[in-house]
Design brief:
Layout: H1 2-13, E1 38-40, E2 42-44, H2 48-61, H3 67-75, H4 87-102, H5 105-119, H6 141-159, H7 162-178, H8 197-200, H9 203-213, H10 216-229, H11 237-244, H12 255-272, H13 275-291, H14 322-339, H15 343-358, E3 367-368, E4 374-375, E5 379-380, H16 387-397, H17 399-402, E6 404-407, E7 410-413, E8 419-426, E9 432-441, E10 448-455, E11 459-466, E12 472-478, E13 481-484, E14 490-497, E15 501-508, E16 511-515, E17 523-528, E18 531-536, E19 549-550, E20 559-560, E21 575-581, E22 584-592, E23 603-604, E24 607-608
Parallel strand pairs: 7-11
Antiparallel strand pairs: 1-6, 2-8, 3-5, 4-23, 6-7, 8-9, 9-10, 10-15, 11-14, 12-13, 12-15, 16-17, 17-18, 17-24, 18-22, 18-23, 19-21, 20-21, 21-22
Helix pairs in contact: 1-2, 4-5, 4-6, 4-16, 6-7, 6-9, 9-10, 9-12, 12-13, 12-14, 14-15, 14-16
């Protein structure tokens, strides 16, 4: 609690900490043909709500990881679970991203130790899985090698530790020797589940390895994977999207593995410039957002994309798999980088403030595999057994990359949160200057943000602010001049900026009442700003059953109820809404879905009319 209060005070008071230089990174040597239109700024001292939840991810999840558990399947093959091999790579991804913005020596030590113990588990032929020799390349073996390479490359990118890169190369070399469409090679599409979607997702790190090494065999293998997708026993990603534009027609519609393949295809597009891949994947994005996306920014029913508009949301529906939430966020981040279109930032915001953070318990750091909108959240604290318990921290570690940066060389604010962003821009006179932007806000408690702009030299340039589509009356004021924003667009302020200039942002966050659609036709949900709200039964002791609660009409009576939260409920955001309980009008407390259920109480997002 004390650490959270320190975080909050730093954010709200705008306290200045010593400026820390970014971690030195070791990047690819082969450039992409398609250059990113969005490049994240370097963020530090992230406070407020997102800072609070990132700190929980570090303190209560990542720093609690037991390397012995994650390495057990490598040290004594076979592992206890056929998918146990994926967890080390996922941890190294999260730890590397977290270290890049925190510079925390503890997470650095933990991942250093993990890598040292991990690389000695690699067999002489390059094998870095958890299966016996006779069982190699079945079930989740290729999949685990995918995450091994991803994790090792991310670790190398923030440390420059070459043995990690060499270990990744040896693992990939074995894959390249084993699979292919040449004589004597095995069919990759048959080396895992879901009509080849699972093993085929190794496309992503293969493209990365080519960029990091320049070795053409990794590029050739990437081309083989794309061919294999379309063969008789493949998932027909390209053919299915070309013919139907419908993700349910791709493979067996398995959401996590399909989105993982999409990430690799986008990286291949950036590398080669082959526009058909971008066009097809943008059509997949449209299909998902129109037909398969929950209001909390996740997808999947029993882990697949279901029929259009069917969005069942109870624990019995195995909805909102954490891994799907994470790869959906990654998919949007990649599309934002490629296109600079802020509609992808809108979807990242929806997912982060709702389903992503709902999947990690702020009391314990435990994670839920599926996070339903109705019922108790089934949080678990184990390690090395559930894919989502390793996945959810990955997306939380990516939050600094989503907050803002340059879009077409214009510094652009995407998420409204406390923090200090640093980057380099080109001013209107074509000179390169450094830019630091400090934000102080209580968002999402209210819609006021103050920015302090510090260019390295007084220059004329533009700063853009994303105007959320849920906001009303969005204004920005600079030195007595006020600018008005339009929902869903960027508000640009172009002027001569000097060190210490202030920008005051203000916007309203009206309550939205959302109809329940096909799956909940007689129910509504309540949303304020980017946050979907829920009734937590543990906070409403007067209610015998959540089924007794009825929403009848929103009358504007939204009352701050934060003082009524338990003392150990760290994020103090709650409201009373007028509803009926057993047909008797009374005030019902609601909290953000991301915070609801943290004490194991039953919750409800969809409320009976």
């Amino acid at each position: 609690m004390r650490r959270f209060l320190l975080f909050l005070l730093l954010g709200l008071a705008g306290s200045k900490a010593m400026c820390i230089d970014p971690v030195k990174t070791y990047g690819p040597i082969i450039p992409n043909k398609i250059q990113d239109k969005y490049t994240p700024a370097y963020y530090q001292n992230i406070g407020g709500y997102l800072g609070y939840r990132m700190n929980i991810n570090l303190e209560k999840r990542l720093l609690k990881i037991d390397s012995a558990t994650l390495l057990s399947g490598f040290r004594k093959r076979p592992g206890e679970q056929v998918w146990i091999g994926e967890h080390v790579g996922k941890f190294l991804f999260s730890a590397s991203k977290t270290y890049a913005y925190t510079h925390d020596a503890r997470i650095k030590h933990l991942m250093d130790d993990m890598v040292q113990k991990y690389i000695v588990c690699q067999l002489p032929d390059g094998y870095l899985g958890t299966y016996l020799y006779k069982d190699r390349w079945t079930d989740w073996d290729v999949w685990a090698h995918k995450y091994a390479i991803i994790g090792l490359l991310n670790y190398y990118s923030v440390t420059g530790y070459k043995p990690a890169l060499e270990t990744a190369k040896r693992a990939a070399d074995l894959i390249c020797r084993t699979f292919g469409d040449g004589p004597g090679k095995r069919d990759l599409m048959l080396a895992g589940d879901h009509v080849g979607l699972a093993p085929g997702s190794i496309l992503e790190p293969m493209v990365d390895l080519y960029r990091y090494t320049g070795n053409k065999k990794y590029l050739d293998f990437s081309k083989y994977i794309l061919r294999a997708f379309e063969q008789k026993d493949g998932p027909k990603i390209i053919g299915g999207l070309e013919k139907y534009g419908d993700v349910t027609k791709v493979g067996d519609a398995k959401a996590y593995e399909m989105l993982s393949c999409f990430l690799g295809m986008l990286k291949y597009y950036k590398l080669t410039g082959d526009t058909k891949y971008l066009t097809l994947l943008q059509s997949a994005w449209v299909d998902i957002t129109k037909h398969h996306l929950y209001i909390t920014g996740t997808a999947s029913d029993h882990e697949v994309f279901p029929a259009d508009g069917t969005l069942r949301a109870t624990n019995n529906d195995d909805m909102g798999e954490g891994c799907v939430t994470v790869t959906w966020i990654q998919f949007n981040l990649s599309l934002l980088q490629i296109t600079g279109d802020t509609k992808y930032a809108t979807e990242m915001e929806r997912s982060v403030y709702n389903h992503l953070l709902a999947a990690e318990n702020p009391q314990t750091g435990c994670v839920s595999y599926y996070t339903a909108l109705q019922g108790a959240k089934p949080y678990r604290c184990d390690q090395g057994y559930s894919c989502c318990l390793s996945s959810v921290p990955r997306a939380i570690s990516l939050i600094p990359e989503m907050m803002g940066g340059k879009i077409n060389n214009v510094f652009t604010v995407l998420l409204y949160e406390n923090g200090e962003a640093s980057t380099q821009i080109v001013a209107n006179d074509h000179s390169k200057i450094g830019l630091k932007v400090d934000a102080v806000t209580r968002f999402p408690l209210d819609g006021k943000v103050e920015y302090t702009i510090t260019p390295s030299a007084a220059k004329t340039f533009k700063i853009d602010f994303r105007v959320p589509d849920w906001s009303e009356n969005f204004t920005a004021s600079v030195n007595g001049e006020t600018y008005k924003g339009k929902k869903g667009q960027l508000l640009g302020i172009e002027r001569k900026w000097s060190a210490g200039d202030k920008v005051s942002i203000a916007f309203d966050m009206p309550v939205q009442v959302i109809p329940g659609g096909i799956s909940f036709p007689n129910a509504i949900a309540v949303k304020r700003g980017p946050q979907v709200f829920a009734i937590d039964k543990g906070l409403n002791r007067q209610i015998d059953s959540l089924k007794d609660v009825n929403y009848f009409k929103y009358d504007g009576a939204l009352t701050n109820a934060s003082a009524n939260l338990p003392a150990d409920w760290d994020w103090k955001e709650a409201f009373f809404l007028n509803m009926k309980v057993n047909n008797i009008p009374q005030q019902v407390m609601m909290v953000p879905f991301a915070e609801a259920g943290q004490k194991s109480a039953s919750i409800e997002v969809w409320i009976n009319r």
